[in-house]
Amino acid sequence: MEVKTLQYVEDFTNESDKKIKFCVYCGNVATHTACFSVEHATVIERYCDTCIKNIRSA
Ligand SMILES: [Zn+2]
To answer: Can you count the helices (H) and strands (E) in the chain?
Structure first.
């Protein structure tokens, strides 16, 4: 099983001129960007308010 290490979380703004991004976990509109390190790579995922709390407390 791969180990994801949370590096940082940023607020994410859906700008009007860009496509809306959705939470990778539940599909709601994303409000936060989470950056993880996985082995030697960096992975950026987007989460809604609810799911980011689970990520932060994990
Ligand atoms: Zn979510």
So the answer is: 1, 3
Q: Are 29 and 48 in contact (CB under 8 A)?
A: yes
Q: What is the pTM of this model?
A: 0.79
| pLDDT score of 24 more than 80 | yes
Ligand 1 geometric centre to CA of 34 (Å) = 12
Report how many domains make up the chain: 1
Q: Give distance in angstroms: CA of 56 to centre of ligand 1.
A: 13
Domain holding 38, by residue range, is: 4-57
| Alpha helices, DSSP H, located in 1-58 | 49-57
Kindly provide the residue ranges of all beta strands, DSSP E only, lying in 12-51, ordered along the sequence.
Answer: 32-38, 41-47
